[in-house]
């Protein structure tokens, strides 16, 4: 059994999609990051970094319980556990390269682009431009790579495509103000639409719908999501 510590944001969504694709039994454990539940001692015992997603795999390597945190690590763990969505053995170096490209580039710059366009105070135009343009640059790198290709790695659907889908699903927020945010990146748009049409995506989108996550962006939310912006309590 897998316990998925979840909030409806891009990185947990990737893990939900892979779990649905694999058909593995799992339990959703809601972590309301707007209420600060990611900072509790109980959750920090699962992920010391205090972020979702994280999983506890009760049937980890060697038959023992394993905790895994960071969406890319979880994708690799689950794919290796089942032997699925890894591509061919010869694809492994490129698979890892693109997974880390998404994990260290496309994802973080997309997240910062969203933050500075929607959450940061006025007067930070340089930062807004910096992160949005870098997110778009990563889009272009991946779009160029996908020319003449159906998937990111090899000739089939892999966890690299699942990882990209998580943030591409938020392209409208990354490229705020664009009516069709992926129109300038036709190969990327084609990949997103191919993945998004898979039956498992609809099931992944339903994950967590039975839980009422906080939606009010008040002071508690800001302190919970961006604790480094506040001095520690005396």
In short:
The chain is α+β, with helices and mostly antiparallel strands.
3D structure, described in words:
The protein has a 4-stranded mixed beta sheet, covered by helices on one side. It contains 10 helices and 4 strands; from the N terminus they run E-H-E-H-E-E-H-H-H-H-H-H-H-H. The chain has 2 domains: 111 residues, Glutaredoxin; 109 residues, Glutathione S-transferase Yfyf (Class Pi), Chain A, domain 2, CATH 1.20.1050. By secondary structure, the chain is α+β, with helices and mostly antiparallel strands.
Explain the layout of strands and helices:
Layout: E1 2-6, H1 10-22, E2 26-30, H2 41-44, E3 54-57, E4 66-69, H3 71-82, H4 92-118, H5 125-145, H6 159-168, H7 171-174, H8 186-196, H9 199-206, H10 219-225
Parallel strand pairs: 1-2
Antiparallel strand pairs: 1-3, 3-4
Helix pairs in contact: 1-3, 1-6, 1-9, 4-5, 4-6, 5-8, 6-8
In quaternary terms, these chains amount to single chain
Question: What's the number of domains?
Answer: 2
The chain-level mean pLDDT equals 96
| CATH fold annotation of the largest domain | Glutaredoxin
Order of helices and strands: EHEHEEHHHHHHHH
User: So what's the CATH class of the largest domain?
Assistant: Alpha Beta
Distance between the termini: 42 Å
Inertia-based shape: globular
β-strand number: 4
Largest β sheet strand count, sense and barrel closure: 4 strands, mixed
Portion of residues in beta strands equals 5-15%
Percent range of helical residues: 40-55%
Determine Rg (CA atoms, Å). 18 Å
The CATH architecture of the largest domain can be named as 3-Layer(aba) Sandwich
Looking at this structure, what is the CATH superfamily of the largest domain?
Answer: Glutaredoxin
| Main sheet strand line-up | 2-1-3-4
Count of discrete alpha- or pi-helical segments spanning 4 or more residues: 10
Determine the structural class based on helices, strands and strand pairing: alpha+beta
Report the uncertain regions.
Answer: none
Domain GST C-terminal: 88-216
Region (Disordered): 214-234
Biased composition (Basic and acidic residues): 214-223
GO molecular function: transferase activity
């Amino acid at each position: 059994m897998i316990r998925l510590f979840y909030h409806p944001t891009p990185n947990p969504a990737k893990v939900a999609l892979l779990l649905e694709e694999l058909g593995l039994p799992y339990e959703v454990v809601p972590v309301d990051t707007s209420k600060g539940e990611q900072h509790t001692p109980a959750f920090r015992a699962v992920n010391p970094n205090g972020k979702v997603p994280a999983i506890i795999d009760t049937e980890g390597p060697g038959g023992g319980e394993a905790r895994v945190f960071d969406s890319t690590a979880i994708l690799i763990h689950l794919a290796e556990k089942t032997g699925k969505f890894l591509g061919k053995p010869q694809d492994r170096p490129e698979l890892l390269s693109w997974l880390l490209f998404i994990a260290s580039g496309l994802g973080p710059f997309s997240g910062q682009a969203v933050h500075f366009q929607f959450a940061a105070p006025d007067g930070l135009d340089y930062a807004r431009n910096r992160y949005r343009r870098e997110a778009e640059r990563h889009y272009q790198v991946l779009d160029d790579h996908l020319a003449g290709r159906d998937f990111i790695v090899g000739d089939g659907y892999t966890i690299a495509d699942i990882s990209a889908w998580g943030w591409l699903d938020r392209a409208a927020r990354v490229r705020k103000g664009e009516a069709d945010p992926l129109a300038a990146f036709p190969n990327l748009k084609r990949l997103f639409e191919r993945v998004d049409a898979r039956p498992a995506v609809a099931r992944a989108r339903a994950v967590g719908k039975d839980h009422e996550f906080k939606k009010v962006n008040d002071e508690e939310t800001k302190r919970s999501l961006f604790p480094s912006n506040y001095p520690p309590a005396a």
